[in-house]
Amino acid sequence: MTVNPAHTALWPAPHASGAVDATVHVPGSKSVTNRALVLAALASEPGWLRRPLRSRDTLLMAAALRAMGVGIEEGIGPDGTGEAWRVLPTGLHGPATIDVGNAGTVMRFLPPVAALADGPVRFDGDPRSYERPLHGVIDALRVLGARIDDDGRGALPMTVHGGGALDGGPVEIDASSSSQFVSALLLSGPRFNQGVEVRHIGSTLPSMPHIRMTVDMLRSVGAQVDTPESGGEPNVWRVTPGALLGRDLTVEPDLSNAQPFLAAALVTGGRVVIPDWPVRTTQPGDRLREIFTEMGGTCELTETGLEFTGSGKIHGIDVDLSEVGELTPGIAAVAALADSPSTLRGVAHLRLHETDRLAALTKEINELGGDVTETSDGLHIRPRRLHGGVFHTYDDHRMATAGAIIGLAVDGVEIENVATTAKTLPDFPDLWDRMLGN
Ligand SMILES: O=C(O)C1=C[C@@H](OP(=O)(O)O)[C@@H](O)[C@H](O)C1
Ligand SMILES: C=C(OP(=O)(O)O)C(=O)O
Q: Which amino acid positions bind 3-phosphoshikimate, per UniProt (predicted)?
């Protein structure tokens, strides 16, 4: 077996010698970039994507769409400012092979797109992608008229035999393990012959802001979507069939990737400014303004962005994170440094994320001397004096950034495979060093 040196390399997490005071330009949102790419690929005319995130997950999405025949030209925008990608929706063709890596957005959003291609599309990915839930998408697509060959587990690897079109119509799914099942069916819904009506029949539904993001972005390209919030039935979303417009969309900074930098202000009693923080957004990271304020900071949203200031004190928190699960690792890291215990709830589905995040956070914080226990749906964190050591990341970008947060306050923390942050934030070590003035 060959060992990738990047995976075993240890990155000494910088210890903060004082309060940070920095402005950090956070790259574009993964969730917005990958939705925008899918919608542009399904449109009936070319579109622009400005300030797209360039990371492993978004480059995998672009490569997958290209493999099906979509043109994506990477370059500078028409006005010469910043990176912009031109998307030319020239067709959806098979045969094609798609590598999903470990990107939930790629493995869930693209099978419905592949069902519209005119030939077989093979999906494969990292070993972890075989374990992540996909049954909601596979079963639903079969009900809606698609032919899919998998190994019977309702997971990757699989082949979607695109027939050039899909009937669509009503479908029931249990999306309690991932909101991305709902988003996936809605995103391609306008291109199904009868559109789609998705009824969630599971007990819980995580990450609602991400479903709102899907609906908002669909509407912005001309789709008609009925939702529970717009007067429809609870847990039912309806998308009317119709052509999608090619738009010129500027991607917001990734607010979930702003998290470690805001945490740095909290942990060091410093100040961090994130330019271009949107005034109105569906990104779950916007909830950090409230959560990190409750944990001891203050923030102000101005025309230039979000200014977040730590008080030098960090408080524990009792919070339901079901809507904003991807923020859990960073909140757990801050909670481990707080002056009182924390309970993080509503995030059982994190056991099926990039890694089992509840197990990984418990093990890694405890190995630094912490006292974390797993509950049925989250974590209980009792802060203790931590010591240095290796913080393992399990190929999970958010484990790496969580370890870096702890490293600010605890000497001698070494992050294994910090390069895994490339999934959504390839510049992380550089941005972190620059924030610290190194
Ligand atoms: O739709 C999206 O862009 C996402 C939805 C969420 O997935 P889950 O609902 O599976 O947690 C989130 O955790 C993930 O990081 C991104
Ligand atoms: C859960 C996450 O990613 P994915 O899109 O792969 O589900 C995440 O980024 O925290």
A: 30-31, 35, 178-180, 207, 326, 353
ipTM for this model? 0.99
Measured CA to CA, the distance from residue 431 to residue 426 in angstroms comes to 10
Q: How far is ligand 2, taken at its centre, from the CA of residue 398, in Å?
A: 9
> How many angstroms separate the alpha carbon of residue 352 from the centre of ligand 2?
10
Same domain, 332 and 348: yes
Ligand 2 atom closest to Cα of residue 105: 5
300 beta partners:
307
CB atoms within 10 A of CB 54: 17
Query: Residue 179 region, left (φ>0) first, then alpha (ψ -120 to 50), else beta?
Result: alpha
Cα dihedral 42/46/51/54 (nearest 10): 60
Residues 6+ apart with CB under 8 A from 79: none
Is there an atom of ligand 1 within 6 Å of 183 CB? yes
Tens-place pLDDT, residues 272-296 = 999 999 999 999 999 999 999 999 9
Ligand 1 close to Cβ of residue 104 (< 6 A): yes
Kindly report, residue by residue over 68-100, the tens digit of the pLDDT.
999 999 988 766 668 999 999 988 999 999 999
Cα 47 from Cα 246, distance rounded (Å): 4
- Expressed as residue numbers, the domain containing 142 is 30-250
Going by C-alpha positions, the residue among 142, 186, 193, 199 that lies closest to residue 169 is 193
Phi, psi of 27 (to 5 degrees): -65, 175
- Tokens encoding 278: 């949107």
Instruction: Examine the fold and report which residue of 250, 265, 282 is the final residue of a domain before the chain moves on.
Output: 250
- Is 326 labeled as catalytic in the residue annotation? yes
Rounded to an integer, what distance in angstroms lies between the CA atom of residue 340 and that of residue 47? 50
CA distance 242 to 380: 47
Which residue, of 250, 272, 292, is where some domain finishes? 250
Ligand approaching nearest to the C-alpha of 187: 1
Q: Check the CA dihedral 206-396-128-149 and report its sign.
A: positive
Total number of domains in the chain = 2
| Interior angle at CA 115, CA 109 and CA 121, nearest 5 | 85
